[in-house]
UniProtKB/TrEMBL annotation:
GO cellular component: endomembrane system; membrane
Protein's cellular compartments: Endomembrane system; Membrane
One GO BP annotation of this record: methylation
InterPro entries named in the record: Prob_Methyltransferase, Put_SAM_MeTrfase, SAM-dependent_MTases_sf
Keyword Membrane carried by entry: yes
Record key words, sorted: Glycoprotein, Membrane, Methyltransferase, Signal-anchor, Transferase, Transmembrane, Transmembrane helix
Pfam families: Methyltransf_29 (PF03141)
Topology relative to the membrane: Single-pass membrane protein; Single-pass type II membrane protein
Protein name per its UniProtKB record: S-adenosyl-L-methionine-dependent methyltransferase
Gene Ontology terms for molecular function: methyltransferase activity
Transmembrane domains' residue ranges: 24-44
Gene3D superfamilies hit by this protein: Vaccinia Virus protein VP39
Family assignment from sequence similarity: Belongs to the methyltransferase superfamily.
Length: 422
């Protein structure tokens, strides 16, 4: 069996249709049955002409019947086995059926969401699709208990306060998550400033969700180093955020105006990987450049904070294929968040997807990427060289760790231009 996908909103409608492979298997099974019947007919109608063996005819006849029964049973078992193997192959290829819904304590809503739905007008004459199948990440099978917990709720009632559970599933590869029929908790967004004043106005503690987090206010978060891109990054007034990308503190820091001047054909839209509290997108917005900031709420309400500044947050893990068409972004910006678990294969997949969404002539800005050692720097350099990018800026330098330890660390900053491939 085969499948096609149709993107609808934030989900994927998947449809099942018959393929040449499945048709061939069905024909093979039919031929097997016909052959079996012909063999049986021949065995029943055949009679030996030698009169000397006529007295053995009843015994031979009985023996032929036993042999035929055994052969028929064997063929039927082979057919049954082939059908089961085919069904299992179909499930593995489609992916959604790998979740065992027969397990005890499986949520009814999960079973209903994953149920196949026949198309109301029957088989589509153009595509051959017959039914619609809901989309859910294949890795959800490994976290079926958590997934069932996520799908246990009161229909049309308030959703459980379980966003941290949803994020845990996403970080385990269970992405996309199934849709739910409940109302998410709403928090009044009181005191939001109009754009562009919202870019640098402090965000109130009262308009974000603190459940599931260690800190319960932004003062607490500003006292912590959440990542290399976020040390006091929620302080928009007196912290380091208000001079990022417009002033330099080290050789690795590039000014936005200098990078924009390198853009062939102009920079209009961009994508930021692991953008902290959204300051890069805020600075770009001041230059009339729209930037989408990829983020998760790891130890802090990043998505709500970014949205409160009037910027577009994309709640998506870096293991997910980016939901954008090919060759659409003029600029991709990334820092140390590009280092996905230190695994070269994962970085390889990520870089190819970033290259896919960036237009020819677009810029890839690698901003203060932490080089734990010289080998890591060389590995990243070899990977980028694979794409044939033109090197516009390149700086490797040491700077003092922002945590206050006084230790010097090596960082790489660079700007590349994507070539027009043929």
């Amino acid at each position: 069996m085969g499948s096609v996908s149709l993107k609808i909103g934030d989900g994927t409608a998947r449809f099942k249709r018959a393929t040449l492979c499945s048709s061939a298997v069905n024909i093979l099974m039919l031929l097997s049955v016909v052959t079996t019947n012909l063999f049986a007919l021949y065995a029943f109608t055949y009679s030996p002409k030698d009169n000397q063996t006529n007295h053995l005819l009843p015994h031979v006849h009985h023996k032929n019947i036993s042999l035929i029964s055994e052969q028929v049973s064997l063929i039927m078992r082979e057919i049954d086995s082939s059908q089961k193997k085919l069904a299992q192959m179909e499930k593995e290829l489609l992916g959604y059926d790998t979740i065992d819904l027969s397990r005890p304590n499986t949520a009814t809503e999960l079973k209903l969401f994953l149920q196949h739905h026949q198309l109301p007008l029957g088989k589509d004459s153009r595509t051959g699709i017959t039914e619609m199948v809901a989309s859910v990440g294949h890795a959800c099978e490994k976290s079926s208990d958590l997934l069932s917990q996520y799908m246990t709720y009161k229909i049309s009632g308030p959703c459980p306060d379980d966003w941290s559970l949803a994020q845990k599933l996403i970080l385990r590869g269970c992405e996309p998550l199934p849709r739910r029929r409940c109302f998410a908790k709403s928090i009044p967004k009181v005191g939001l400033s109009p754009f562009p004043f919202s870019l640098w106005k402090p965000v109130s503690d009262k308009i974000v969700t603190w459940s599931g987090l260690g800190c319960k206010n932004f003062n607490c978060l500003n006292s912590k180093k959440l990542s290399r891109e976020c040390s006091g990054c929620f302080d928009l007034v007196s912290g380091s955020e208000n001079h990022k990308f417009v002033k330099t503190t080290s050789k690795n820091d590039f000014i936005i105006d200098d990078v924009l001047a390198l853009g062939y054909g102009g920079i209009r839209i961009g994508f930021d990987i692991g953008g902290g509290s959204g300051t890069f997108a805020a600075r770009m917005a001041e230059k009339n450049v729209t930037v989408i900031t990829n983020t998760l709420n790891i130890d802090a309400p990043f998505s709500e904070f970014i949205a409160a500044r009037g910027i577009f947050p994309l709640y998506l893990s870096l293991d997910h294929r980016f939901p954008f068409n090919d060759n659409v972004f003029d600029l991709v910006h990334a820092g140390s968040g590009l280092d996905v678990g230190g695994k070269p294969e994962k970085l390889d997949f990520l870089m190819f997807d970033l290259d896919r969404i960036m237009r020819p002539g677009g810029l890839f800005w690698l901003d203060n990427f932490y080089c734990a050692n010289d080998e890591k720097k060389k590995a990243l350099t070899r990977l980028i060289e694979k794409f044939g990018y033109k090197k516009l800026k390149w700086v490797v330098a040491e700077k003092v760790d922002g945590s206050g330890s006084g230790k010097s660390e090596v960082f790489l900053s660079a700007v590349f231009q994507k070539p027009a491939r043929v």
